[in-house]
Amino acid sequence: MNHDEKPVRSIPIIDKFVSPAWLLALVLAAITCFGAVMLFSVAGGDVEPWASRQLFRFGIGLLLLAVVALIDIRLWMKAAYPFYGLALALLALVPVFGTRAGGAQRWIDLGAFQLQPSEFMKIALVLALAAYYERLPREEVSKPLKLAVPLLLILVPTLLVLKQPDLGTAILLLAGGLGILLVAGLHWGYFATGLVSVLAAVPVAWNFLHGYQRQRILTFLDPERDPLGAGYHILQSKIAIGSGGIWGKGLLHGTQSQLNFLPEQHTDFIFTMLAEEMGLVGGVSLVTGYLIILAFGLYVAVNSFNHFGRLLATGVCLTFFLYAFVNLAMVMGLMPVVGVPLPLVSYGGTAMLTLMFGFGLLMNVALHRRIEFTHHDTAMV
Fold first, then answer.
1. For residues 280 and 317, what is the distance between their CA atoms, to the nearest angstrom?
2. Which of 92, 120, 202, 218 is the most buried (most CB within 10 A)?
3. Does residue 302 lie in a domain region?
4. Considering the entire predicted model, what is its pTM?
5. What distance in Å separates the CA atoms of residue 232 and residue 234, rounded to the nearest whole number?
């Protein structure tokens, strides 16, 4: 090397943009485009009203992802509680200012779009729990008094969402929150005690369920008890998935879907349409894309130098997994129908932006994985 040459200095912001972590954005774009094709089919071969809007929202989501990813991870930890407080305040406003649709009050009308605060709470909860356990000494994780705060962080929004009522989102909040507690190192004895308590409380909880929620559970246990009524949709869903075969019937050629035998084809039951028109190959392709995202997220979590990053990446992955698992199990008849969208594929503005925000945080952990927090970083502000 010529000693007169000056070493090339790297520019941090450029280094972050050329990181291999951005390949995740390509996978997200591929899945979203796949979903847009299905929304095009749902509309009978038209980009309006769903496909074009979905792609536009994804474009906004990509910008959001980039901004979130490039912010210093230490700032995200300091902003975790304020962000959670904002999401909780919006949830509390739903019963007062929320709009009602389909027997539920879950949205706040902002004019240009409908905001669903429960979706943002999923990521806000992950942030808050990750920040709490970053600041908590590891030896105190399983102390009963130290468990009170995370339980309140989980239960308060869960109960507010149940009141809307939105059983599906409440399940995701509860399961996601408990999953982070497990990863944080909480003793397994708490989970065993909780499981026994839940099983014992099932008869009591049954009396507090809404009529339609009871019907969904009964239909899940035996769809054929009412094949032309409550069990109709899940039976049609199974027929559509099975009839797709290996290669599917072709875009716009699904019988169950195009003849409107299926409900909510652009949201909850979009995978049923995908399986009928794209077959097993299409379904496996989508699931493979999901697995790539999960593998990337878990790799990032394992290789993060700080506990906040590990929990944040794990929480985002767990939230994403629960979205996908519950929806797929629901349309296949493996779980009761609870109204959970299929990530990046189902039509929905708030759900799309929430996921992209979460993936931005995942990317943030990947880009800042070597940062080790100091006492000053973890101090409350």
1. 25
2. 120
3. yes
4. 0.88
5. 6
Q: In angstroms, rounded to a whole number, what is the distance separating the alpha carbons of residues 154 and 249?
A: 44
Task: Map tokens 């009964």 to a residue.
Answer: 218
Note whether residue 329 is domain-resident. yes
Pairing of strands 98-101, 104-109: antiparallel
Q: What is the pLDDT at residue 378?
A: 61
What is the predicted pLDDT for the residue at 209? 75
Structural domain of 264: 21-378
Cα gap 20→13, rounded to integer Å: 14
pLDDT at 379: 61
Q: Which helix (H) or strand (E) holds 101?
A: strand 98-101
The series of mean pLDDT values per 10 residues for the chain, 381 residues long, is: 46 60 89 94 88 94 94 93 95 85 76 83 95 91 92 94 86 92 90 86 77 73 66 81 89 78 80 92 95 93 92 95 92 82 89 93 91 66 44
- The one-letter amino acid code at 80 reads A
**Strand order across the 114-115 sheet:** 98-101, 104-109, 114-115
Q: Cα–Cα–Cα angle for 333, 247, 273, nearest 5°?
A: 40
Residue 362 counted as domain residue: yes
Let me know if residue 14 belongs to a domain.
Answer: no
Q: What is the pLDDT of residue 103?
A: 66
pLDDT of residue 14: 56
Query: What phi and psi, each to the nearest 5 degrees, are found at residue 109?
Result: -80, 115
If one counts the domains in the chain, the total is 1
Q: CA torsion 257→263→267→273, rounded to 10°?
A: -20
Q: What is the CA radius of gyration of the chain?
A: 22
Q: Where are the alpha helices (DSSP H) in the chain?
A: 12-17, 23-42, 51-70, 73-97, 117-135, 144-162, 167-184, 188-208, 211-221, 232-243, 255-258, 270-302, 307-331, 349-367, 375-378
Element (H, E) at 109: strand 104-109
